[in-house]
């Protein structure tokens, strides 16, 4: 099975030592996102995860299964970031000068649209996370209609905004940005 099929077929990628994103920012994201992801996973009946881009890899820092509980511990994907919805969203948050020429069109479309759709997932950005590119992803059934996709994007975007608002408020309380 190819790495990108494994990631989209629900097989968990291997954990690689300590997650490269185990920084204070990523841990702050995990703490704030956890209750939101638990609620959203139950509401949608699908796994949801928050991830960052660290060292050129997509690293899931927290996740929740459809029935609660950690469904996406800090793991790095075995696929290139541009191959999946989550990676495309994370890469689109970087300055355009850092984009690989071959991925430019897809990243520009993702940035303009504000979300990305993969073979079996939908991802949206979380803005303002201490300058750390972050995103949320939900598993989407392959048979989802456009209407269902639009509803999931809307709900996922609302949760991303709520997480972002909490992160900003937390930073202000600590005297940050």
Outline:
The chain is built from 5 helices and 6 strands; from the N terminus they run H-H-E-E-E-H-H-E-E-E-H.
Structure description:
The protein is of the alpha+beta class. Helices cover 41% and strands 18% of the residues. The chain has a six-stranded antiparallel beta sheet with strand order 3-2-1-6-5-4, with helices on both faces.
State the share of residues found in helices, binned by percent: 40-55%
Tally of alpha and pi helices? 5
Structural Rg: 15 Å
Q: How are strands sequenced across the largest beta sheet?
A: 3-2-1-6-5-4
The multimeric state of the shown protein is: single chain
Order of helices and strands: HHEEEHHEEEH
Mean pLDDT: 78
Overall shape: it is: globular
Beta fraction of the residues?
15-25%
Distance between the termini: 45 Å
Structural class: alpha+beta
Question: What are the main properties of this structure?
Answer:
single chain; 177 residues; alpha+beta; 6-stranded antiparallel sheet; 6 strands; 41% helix; disordered N terminus
